[in-house]
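TL;DR need structure tokens for one chain.
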Amino acid sequence: MSAEPRERVGARFERREQIECGDAATRAVRDLALALKATSESVKECILRNMSQRAAQMLREDMEAMGPVRLRDVDEAQMYMVQLAKDLAARGELVLAEGSGENELIY
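>> reply
TL;DR here they are.
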């Protein structure tokens, strides 16, 4: 067993968690910008108007700065965002609308 104080070991794990969370957030933002590149303007605006003005502006700038992108990369980013939404919904951190029209559930 290591003679390293317990506090130092715990601090190392906390830093690792912060790095991993930061990496995940960076990927989510990058993939959101990429995923929105091939969506309709109405979908883009729906997402952007649910963000702060500053975040929405930064996302718009990220999309513009990307230039042309491969459709395969857009598809992968869209799949990642769908999976992320499902994971958040499974943890109760996001509510996804179910159904459409008269069968739509409102939460």
